[in-house]
Amino acid sequence: MNGTGEARVAVYIDFDNIVISRYDQLFGRGRFNRDKVRVADNDEADLAARIERATVDLGAVLDFASSFGTIAVSRAYADWSVPINAGYRRQLVERAVDLVQLFPVVASMKNGADIRLSLDVVDDLFRLADITHVVVVAGDSDYIALAQRCKALGRYVVGIGVAGSTSKALAAACNEFADYDALPGVESLPDPAEPVSENTTPVVAVDSSKQRRQSERTARRLLTRALELGAAKNDEEWQAAGAVKNQMLRMDPTFQERALGFGSFSEFVKSEGSLVELDETHPSRRIRLRPQGRKA
Hints:
The chain has about 300 residues and is α/β, with parallel strands linked by helices. It has helices spanning about 15-25, 30-35, 45-55, 60-65, 85, 90-95, 115-125, 145-150, 170-175, 210-235, 240-250, 265-270, and strands at about 10-15, 70-80, 100, 135, 155-160, 175-180, 240, 275-280, 285-290. The protein starts with 7 loop residues before the first strand and ends in a 7-residue tail after the last strand.
């Protein structure tokens, strides 16, 4: 075990999953395959522009992972002979990420990344007892069992996936789940740069204001429930902000104040001033429900 008590992080990237999901997020579900990006000639101007626009900032992913502790293991799984994947090799190698080569095993081009990645994770956890955090960059429901296994082995599991392409069950199976779009340093979604056929529905064309209102309502209910549970458990109205946020993450690992447009948890709490009170004079920044916010 790590005698220093320092958190040590293992990062595993299902590369195809994150790249395909980002492309489809921008240009419509299934567009990556319809555009034949994996085998297409990237000299085609329109396609090259779309690929460039959908580039994943893996530096932002690794920086986020490093916020949990020292990165001790980092691997990315893909067929690195594919042109779109090869374009990322330098970026990954410069960040000391091991590139695991996977060749397609069936005609559908599936490369079995989920199986290989999962086997490597479990093997690493038994070999490297000082790993405290496991970060899985993928949104596929195939990783639910892996997340549950890692938690059973006493590790803190963090998932990272692209909004709109992530299994809700996977997010719930993790201790914490982050949308790629909300990671610090990731640029916000650009406006569509090309006409979209009526059969294609990119995420950016969805009514974002409606989605935001729904997210705000969900976060408000989560905050209320966390405060109610804390008050019932400790028999105290005032709850430490850190404890409240941790309870919210236990109930919904997808909660992120940044995804709602706030730079900190305190900013989010302040925005709910009609519902809660925030005492910033206390060392732990205490929160409590206002009387009208409590259940009768």
